[in-house]
Write a structure and sequence with these properties.
Chain A: It is an enzyme of class 7 (translocase). Chain A: NDH-1 is composed of 14 different subunits. Subunits NuoA, H, J, K, L, M, N constitute the membrane sector of the complex. Chain A: It is a multi-pass membrane protein. Chain A: Keywords: Cell membrane, Membrane, NAD, Quinone, Translocase, Transmembrane, Transmembrane helix, Transport. Chain A: Belongs to the complex I subunit 4L family. The structure holds two protein chains of two kinds. Helices cover about 75% and strands about 0% of the residues of chain A. Chain A is mainly α. Chain A has helices at about 5-25, 30-55, 60-90. In chain A, helix 2 (about 30-55) packs antiparallel against helix 3. Chain A contains three helices and no strands. Chain A is elongated and about 50 Å long. Chain B is mainly alpha-helical. Among the domains of chain B are: about 275-535, no CATH class; about 545-575; about 580-629. Chain B has helices at about 5-20, 25-55, 80-105, 110-130, 135-155, 160-190, 195-205, 210-230, 235-240, 245-255, 260-265, 270-275, 275-300, 305-325, 325-355, 365-370, 370-385, 395-405, 415-440, 450-465, 480-485, 500-530, 530-535, 540-550, 555-575, 580-600, 605-629; strands at about 60-70, 70-80. A two-stranded antiparallel sheet of chain B has the order 1-2. In chain B, strand 1 (about 60-70) and strand 2 (about 70-80) form a beta hairpin. Chain B starts with a helix and ends with a helix. Classes of the chains: A mainly alpha, B mainly alpha. At the A-B interface, helix 1 of A face helix 26 and helix 27 of B.
Chain lengths: ~100, ~625
């Protein structure tokens, strides 16, 4: 089976994204949820890189640098929040943090 | 002199009495209350004298423009013509005498000032009613007297029964007032004005005789008159109105306010002449009412209720006269009735006070010796009410109506027979009352005799009840027509179909005979054979009729079943606001949606993410759908 490299890369990015999405929905542990977000971000980054190689431009790779920077910032904020959450609730279960319900 | 002064003076004094009811002493209240009416009577007499001397058609006065909108204009305008003058004189003079009497009668009342304030307000409103130049101002006075009637019937407001009677009077008359209001709207729609004289002038050009529109208008006006004057079918409020103090009964529910209906019909007589059906209805109502009320008066035990039913009956005579086209005869009977009925009411009041507020005639008796002065004036009043021939005013006025109810253009033999039956009943119930009160054994002791302030008005009214008749004598007896001549510029002379002295003699003779035999029957039953009377009255069939008549032919029960109970039933069903259900339902639906949406805010992060994902998928699907398909 002969698949075009762009198509293969895009499929991989899509599969990664969906895996991340599924795990964010099924996991209750908030650290895993953070990890899943990272996976989804990287899937998006992969799609950018594949696309940029397909068009032969550097735009997508520049965009991946932005994504990396943003992911780093997100992880630092996210980890701080998780620490606070654990400090407050003594658990990492996201379902426990449901006090703001209607 | 200014006609506007006549109603303004009582209004002013009512205002003063209302504001200063705590500061003023009793003497000051009495002086202000009676003095204002005396002043107003003096002005009225002055204007009447000027009127008679100058031979004018009418005295008019424009005070100010009340309402002006588009083509509609209603002013506070007063107009005094011959008819108004008669009413104004009776209202102020009889009103003054009743006020003087009330000053003595109400002397021990705590709310002395409130009483006189309401009485003065009433006189003012009544004067506005009879002097108004347009129907709107007349309606204002009309409602004003209704309000005062309500206030004064419920004067002793601490007893719930009095409040009930007051509300009943107000609501029942309101039925008639609504009809009258509709009549005013229709008159304005067709004639474009509410000015009485303009309406009367344009009516003859607008409508031919018997036109359905004018018939409807006249019937609606009649509805208003029927309510105010306590005629069938709205007569039920008057007997209950006796809950008020006796001077109120004398002034409002005998002499003046209840005759407002007579005034209204006489004032708009041109409209009634254009609507023969409405005029006949008036006569039929009068004839039926006078007989029904006569029977009811016959079996009452409360002295004031006898007089109340007799008032209904006598106003029935006036309506009968109006219906037959004998306009001036109706007004003449109003005048004499005002004198002798006020006299009888105040005489009854004197007796009631003397017996410590005892109103049951069967607990009175033998008062002839103890209350000699009251006995004589009461005799004169009763004689006038029963129409004893030649010497009483009541004879001349009632006899004229009886004769004209047959011979006038709108008359009928049936009306004549009803009027004769009424004459017999009047004699019976009047003297049944008289003999029960003054003859027989003493049952209740006299506590105190009425003072001068109560007796002097009675003497004056006793004189008036006798001499007032001589201003209008029938053809057969001297033929004096001072009164009808006086009214001739306003009210056309009656058309007599059968100008026959023999028939007139027969009618007069019969009515006199019936009145006298009524008195004779009353004497036989009450004085000679009280035992026989009791046996007769205890027979089951008679007992049933007595109860039926005493309850006023069960009209109260009928209205209770027909109107009151369905209304109460409906309001009970509607207690939870059926009409509002649609809107409360809408609000409830919104609240339900709100709860449903609030549930989705579970606080669970993963569900929110799912929501975001589903939303994103939905938007992307739509976009792809739009682009590729």
């Amino acid at each position: 089976m002969n698949v075009h490299p762009t198509t293969a890369g895009m499929l991989l990015a899509g599969v990664l994204f969906v895996l991340g999405l599924i795990s964010i929905l099924v996991r209750r542990d908030i650290i895993f949820m953070l990890l899943s977000v990272e996976i989804m971000l990287n899937a998006a980054g992969l799609a950018f890189v594949v696309a940029s190689s397909h068009w032969g431009t550097a735009d997508g790779q520049v965009m991946f640098m932005f994504i990396l920077a943003m992911a780093a910032a997100e992880v630092s904020v996210g980890l701080a929040l998780i620490l606070q959450l654990y400090h407050q609730l003594k658990t990492l279960d996201s379902d426990e943090a449901s006090k703001m319900n209607g | 002199m200014l006609p506007a002064l006549i109603p303004v003076i009582p209004f002013l004094s009512a205002f003063i009495l209302m504001l200063g009811w705590k500061q003023l002493s009793r003497a000051a209240v009495a002086v202000i209350g009676c003095g204002s009416i005396a002043l107003s009577a003096a002005v009225a007499i002055g204007i009447a004298a000027q009127f008679a001397a100058n031979g004018e058609q009418a005295i008019q006065q424009h005070v100010w423009t009340w309402l002006q909108a588009g083509g509609f204009r209603a002013g506070v305008d007063f107009r005094m013509d011959a008819l108004s003058v008669v009413f104004v004189l009776v209202i102020t003079i009889v009103g003054f005498l009743i006020h003087v009497y009330a000053a003595g009668y109400m002397h021990d009342e705590p709310d002395y000032s409130r009483f006189f304030a309401c009485m003065n307000l009433f006189v003012g409103a009544m004067l506005v009613l009879v002097m108004a130049d347009n129907l709107l101002l007349l309606y204002f006075g009309w409602e004003g007297v209704g309000l005062c009637s309500y206030l004064l019937i419920g004067f002793w407001y601490k007893d719930p029964a009095n409040g009930y009677a007051a509300r009943k009077a107000f609501i029942v008359t309101r039925v008639g007032d609504t009809a009258m209001g509709i009549a005013l709207f229709m008159l304005f729609q067709y004639t474009g004005t509410l000015h009485i004289q303009n309406i009367l002038e344009s009516a003859t050009q607008l409508w031919s005789k018997g036109d359905p529109t004018i018939t409807l208008i006249a019937l609606l006006l009649l509805g208003g008159a029927v309510g105010k004057s306590a005629q069938l079918p709205l007569q039920t409020w008057l007997p209950d109105a006796m809950a008020g103090p006796t001077p109120v009964s004398a002034l409002i529910h005998a002499a003046t306010m209840v005759t407002a209906g007579v005034y209204l019909i006489a004032r708009t007589h041109t409209l009634f002449e254009l609507a023969p059906a409405a005029q006949t209805t008036t006569a039929v109502i009068g004839a039926i009412t006078l007989v029904l009320a006569g029977f009811s008066a016959l079996v009452q035990t409360d002295i004031k209720r006898v007089l109340a039913y007799s008032t209904v009956s006598q106003i029935g005579y006036m309506f009968l006269a109006l219906g037959c086209g004998a306009w001036s005869a109706a007004v003449f009977h109003f005048v004499t009735h005002a004198f002798f009925k006020a006299l009888l009411f105040m005489g009854a009041g004197a007796i009631i006070v003397a017996l410590h507020h005892e109103q049951d005639m069967f607990k009175m008796g033998g008062l002839k010796k103890q209350l000699r002065a009251v006995y004589w004036v009461f005799l004169i009043g009763s004689a006038s009410l029963a129409a004893i021939p030649f010497v009483t005013a009541g004879f001349y006025s009632k006899d004229q109506i009886i004769w004209l109810s047959w011979s006038a253009a709108g008359g009928h033999v049936g009306f004549w027979l009803a009027a004769l039956l009424g004459a017999l009943l009047t004699g019976m119930y009047t003297f049944r009352m008289f003999f029960l009160v003054f003859y027989g054994d003493i049952k209740t002791k006299v506590h105190h005799r009425p003072g001068n302030s109560m007796m002097i008005p009675l003497y004056i009214l006793a004189v008036l009840s006798t001499v007032a008749g001589f201003i209008e004598l029938p053809h057969t007896l001297g033929h004096v027509t001072l009164f009808s001549n006086w009214l001739l510029p306003v009210l056309p002379a009656v058309t007599v179909l059968q100008e026959s002295a023999i028939l007139e003699w027969t009618s007069q003779g019969l009515s006199a005979l019936l009145a006298l035999s009524g008195i004779g029957l009353a004497y036989a039953w009450v004085v000679i054979h009280p035992k026989g009377m009791v046996d007769f009255l205890e027979m089951p069939a008679i007992l049933w009729f007595r109860g039926f008549w005493a309850r006023g032919w069960d009209f109260d029960k009928l209205y209770d079943v027909l109107l009151v109970r369905p209304y109460v039933y409906l309001s009970r069903i509607n207690k939870r606001d059926l009409v509002d259900k649609l809107y409360t339902g809408l609000a409830q639906l919104m609240q339900w949606c709100h709860h449903m949406l609030a549930r989705t805010q579970s606080g669970l992060l993963r569900w929110y993410i799912l929501g975001v994902v589903l939303g994103a998928v939905a938007i992307l699907s739509v976009l792809i759908w739009r682009i590729y398909i």
